[in-house]
Specification:
Protocatechuate 3,4-Dioxygenase, subunit A, 26% strand, oxidoreductase, Protocatechuate 3,4-dioxygenase alpha subunit, dioxygenase, 2 helices, Intradiol_dOase_C, mainly beta
Length: 174
């Protein structure tokens, strides 16, 4: 006898978000930028019960983490978590990350959503930096790299995430 299949969720909104999760830095922080986007499914429809997490270095390229080989810095959480809205939107207020040894400035992104048994992981790169020396970025087939680069907006960047289908965001096996 077989067991019927089930997808995961939608439980993400119940226990994972916290009130200041979208604020990697407090509002009013000098140099703060918004990263905003929409989480889309394979048909291009908004995913209204997803969760987008970000983790990044501070503007000097350091992490507030004991495993940072250059020494941890304190005072910059570097971590954000935003549930998607009914129209699939997410946002995080942060600072532009700095250059890392051997890597272009980027924000690491994890996505959780219904139907995913495991998170999917991608990166946000920024158009004003030379990303051509980043080994992860250049490992992606050239015609798909655009799915990793945010678009500049008036108050930050837009980065839509497409889980499947045409224009699917590149995800990494980590």
């Amino acid at each position: 006898m077989s067991t019927p299949s089930q997808t995961v969720g939608p439980f993400l909104h119940i226990g994972l978000p916290w009130p200041d999760g979208v604020f990697v830095v407090p509002q009013g922080t000098p140099g703060a930028i918004w990263i905003r986007g929409v989480l889309l499914d394979g048909c291009g429809e908004p995913v209204n019960d997803g969760l987008v997490e970000t983790w990044q270095a501070d503007p000097s390229g350091h992490f507030d983490h004991p495993d940072d080989p250059r020494g941890a810095v304190t005072g910059f959480r570097g971590f954000g978590r935003c549930p998607t809205t009914v129209d699939g939107r997410y946002e995080v207020l942060t600072l532009l990350p700095g250059v890392l040894p051997g890597a272009a400035p980027h924000v690491n992104v994890s996505v959780f959503a219904r139907g995913l048994l495991h998170r999917v992981v991608t990166r946000i790169y920024f158009p004003e930096f030379d990303n051509s020396s980043d080994p992860v970025f250049v490992s992606v087939v050239q015609d798909r790299r655009s799915t990793l680069v945010a678009q500049s907006t008036e108050d930050g960047y837009r980065f839509d995430i497409r889980l499947q289908g045409e224009g699917e965001t590149v995800f990494f096996d980590v």
